[in-house]
Design goal:
This protein is mainly β. The protein has a single domain, classed as Lipocalin (Beta Barrel). Helices cover 15% and strands 51% of the residues. Strands 1, 2, 3, 4, 5, 6, 7, 8, 9 and 10 form a ten-stranded antiparallel sheet that branches. The longest helix has 13 residues, at 2-14. It is globular. The model is unreliable at 1-18 (pLDDT under 50).
Length: 134
């Protein structure tokens, strides 16, 4: 799936519409909702992750995970972010998808090599974990 996200990023860059693209790949290592805390076994089985592709024209939020229905392959849902903000002082990035009431917040490391994230899926589930940036 990372290949598909990279392909999407490259397509945007090569289309000439976007001078730069930045991709954050965020792997879930903790997930909770209003009814339970997901076990390490659940997280290992489904391998959920989020991604944020930021271009000059906006951002795309992706939510990915392995699915039995797809033959245990990774599938992703993609959403055009309605709004993206980056704090000019500390660099925190927040991307919002209003229709789905979802948001993805990325807290970059000081050295720019990655960071951590919080994803609120808008239906009572919150995921956390580390991110890398390409």
């Amino acid at each position: 799936m990372l290949r598909l996200l990279l392909l999407a990023t490259l397509t945007l860059v090569l289309s000439g519409k976007h001078a730069q693209a930045e991709m954050w790949n965020c792997v879930v290592d903790r997930k909770i909702d209003s009814e339970r805390v997901y076990t390490d076994s659940d997280i290992q089985k489904w391998q959920p992750r989020a991604a944020l592709i930021v271009t000059d024209a906006g951002a795309i939020i992706a939510r990915c995970g392995f699915s039995i229905a797809s033959g245990n392959r990774e599938t992703c849902d993609y959403y055009d972010a309605d709004r993206i903000e980056q704090d000019p002082v500390v660099g925190v990035i927040k991307a919002y998808y209003f229709r789905g009431q979802m948001d993805l917040q990325i807290y970059p490391n000081q050295d720019g090599t990655g960071g951590t994230f919080v994803e609120n899926n808008g239906r009572g589930t919150i995921s956390f974990g580390p991110c890398t940036v390409n």
